[in-house]
Amino acid sequence: MVRRWWMGLAACAVAGCGSGAEDASSSRERITESPRARVAELAGETATFETVAIEPFAGSPFTNDVVRLRDVPEDVKPDASGCYCFAETDARFAYAHTYVHATRALRSYNARLAEIGLAPVKDVPISLVKANAGMPTTGSLGERNGTVFVEVTTSSPVVDTGVLVHEIGHIIHRKIAGSDAGTSSIPLGITELAPNLLAALELRITRFAEYAWMDAAIDLTRELHCPDRILRDADLFQSQIDAPRFAAAFPVWVGALREELQTHPEQYQAPDEYSNSALVVGPMLATAPACGYAALQRVALEALHDVRTSGTMGALSQRLVAHARTECPAGADALEERLRARGVL
Ligand SMILES: [Zn+2]
């Protein structure tokens, strides 16, 4: 989906790090050693860096059966020890970091899809585009020659994994919805709710936006009630303009938002689908302690598969509760209660 340029995107943090298995097997004919890379784990407002084993490539660099990074520069090469160990200020850092996090998210969701009898998502092309300084990481879906690809635009080599996994969520949603989900502009629909829900359950975030968006983040777990607390696009933008650290980190973006709100205020009065997705995402995250994330990922995929592209928040919520009764009987009542409290059931 081509997004309006000014729209905020969910950014989030990563919980836990699967470092992958290091294959130390050796034989006289060939020695197989997994490549390694220095990547970032993003949590809250901080990034920690570590060197992890990464999945061996299949064919081209940074390509396996689920992820295909496009247009990787020639100088993104490992050092003598086989490690893509770049400083986080080096543009080359972005490639292995993106490969690791995209692969991790797709492996996780493909495991859940297999558990519910749906086909896996394969061969997701991802393009990294350099953004101008002063702009946060943003993402979109592009299409070329009939192939849909993820495009992440970033001024920092530490690509925000929340944006990355949100866009991958669009790809998963399109696949299980069986059509072009992602182009809808239905207010309070599920077009942006779906990727926010999938990203939140994968990254185990408790806030709508954490790493790059810092104090402009919207807390997913706060109580939102329909209809008086529905947030408009203008509310979301104002929260970013008013957030001191966010405004300091991304002055170009915030300046553009301020100008847009002043010159075209009438264009930003619609309910904001990103932040209002919290009406459903919040209750699902709150149910995780009772159900576990894997069960709720299945619940989300099954419900999204049920409602396809025509779903409203209410229809999706009904299906979430219905599948929770099977997948997690212990948490279903509480999920239903939380969704009712927010007015979406
Ligand atoms: Zn989106």
Please describe the topology of this protein.
Elements: E1 36-43, E2 46-53, E3 67-69, E4 83-84, H1 93-115, E5 124-130, E6 138-144, E7 147-154, H2 161-177, H3 193-203, H4 233-242, H5 244-249, H6 251-263, H7 273-276, H8 278-291, H9 293-307, H10 313-327, H11 329-341
Parallel strand pairs: 1-4, 3-5, 5-7
Antiparallel strand pairs: 1-2, 6-7
Helix pairs in contact: 1-2, 1-9, 2-3, 3-8, 3-9, 4-6, 8-9, 8-11, 9-10, 10-11
Bound molecules: zinc ion (ZN).
Residues 166, 170, 192, 195 line the site of zinc ion.
Structure in words:
With 345 residues, the chain is α/β, with parallel strands linked by helices. A four-stranded mixed β-sheet has the order 3-5-7-6, covered by helices on one side. It has a three-stranded mixed β-sheet with strand order 2-1-4. 41% of the residues lie in helices and 12% in strands. The longest helix has 23 residues, at 93-115. It contains eleven helices and seven strands. It has a domain at 222-341. Helix 1 crosses helix 9 and helix 3 runs antiparallel to helix 9. The structure holds zinc ion. Zinc ion binds next to helix 2.
Salient structural properties:
345 residues; Lipoprotein; alpha/beta; 4-stranded mixed beta sheet; 3-stranded mixed beta sheet; single chain; disordered N terminus; 41% helix; binds zinc ion; 11 helices
